[in-house]
Description:
With 471 residues, this protein is α/β, with parallel strands linked by helices. 31% of the residues lie in helices and 20% in strands.
Amino acid sequence: MPDAPAARRRTALVIGGSTAGMLAASVLTGRFEQVTVVEADRLPQGPEPRRGLPQAHHAHLLWSGGVAAMEELLPGVTGELVGRGAGLIGVMADLVSKAPSGQWFRRFTDSRHHMIVCSRDLLDAVVRADVLGRRGITLLDGTRVAGLAGDEGRVTGVRVPAGPGGRTTTLHADLVIDASGRASHARAWLRELGHAPVEERVVDAGVAYASRVYAAPAGTAALRYPVVNVQADPRDAPGRGGVVVPIEGDRWLVTLSGTRGGEPTADPERFEHFALTGLADPVIGRLLARAEPLTDPVTTRSTANRRRYYERAGTWPDGFAVLGDAVAGYNPVYGHGLSVAAQSAQALGRVLDRYGPTAPGTARRVQRAVARPVGNAWNLAVGQDAYYPGAAPEPPTPVERLLTAYVDRTVAAGSQDPRALRGLLDVMSLKTPPTRLFAPDMLWALCFGPRRRPLPGPPLSRAEREAAGLG
């Protein structure tokens, strides 16, 4: 009798080799025999910048919801990052923050939340090395995807350049994940396959960012120096803010921001002046007085909140799903993009395990599952940014107005009562959905919790002040 034919190997393909793409690939390696990551850039071997990720120059925060998700996907990654100089900081013990409404939050040590703080280059390098070191993964970098292969009912792979004259060849796959970021062409590709246009919403507060790396003052090296954050107020345009993030190598990554009419510039001479005079508090400018600049400022205006509602599409092909910033990109000031990417990769794995990696309808279920973490972060970001002049052609929805007003109340209460702040942090960290703000303990804290006088200034300790030369 002839031998039975061997079972066909299941293959998957990820468009995009950034953190979102690598996390998606880490999920796929346990469900497919072969996974290919296709990336337009040539990826560096270590923690180095790359052309296709300009936002890497600016401050990134990985909230505890993202830390937990990433650790589940890549066990040991937190320890690897910390071992290479990243900080695992407690919120609020290691965070000095001025709220948009003007209050300074009190610091306390019994928080259940933490953040990873480091350069984006280091984070990407550690994640990339972990994922690409796994069996069954192939990296095809320096290759830009030209479009999807397949038809209206199923995506069967992607088309990539095959030589001069615009010729392409097809890389076949049972499942294609688009994690190519804000510049994703998924909406256009779906239309080419015969699907109706996907709804998109943009809320653009007109935020510009300028970032610069400093050598931290020598006295701060012996301390775990806190993140210092002065948040912008959307009700007082132009909104100006800034953050000092201690990163690996005893350096500070300083990012300043401003909305239309109040933008920071790339002029080195004006960077520190903006920090000292343009924000609601001069603490960041004062901190920089004894720090040594290592780079010139780098600016970006690619900060709009942009969401594509793929989960609402009337039709959807099997074999294709979209993750990360390709679904929704947020104003970076909220620090939610990386956390949402990690939680979306978790959702991908759960759906594949429940319904089967290649079963009919699985891809659409993935898209709907991804919409949950995306929506939680989106509501928080848009609820603030929609109030800036010119941010959107339509005003905030009634639900967004209600949520924003309620969040403002929790922020005011949280600056005076740690119990209220813990509930707010549960939501801001993306550990729980916004409904957490309406839990009985939060309602009690808002109505009957203790009230203290507002802090007169940033709650830096004496040692922190002296180390930075603040006296």
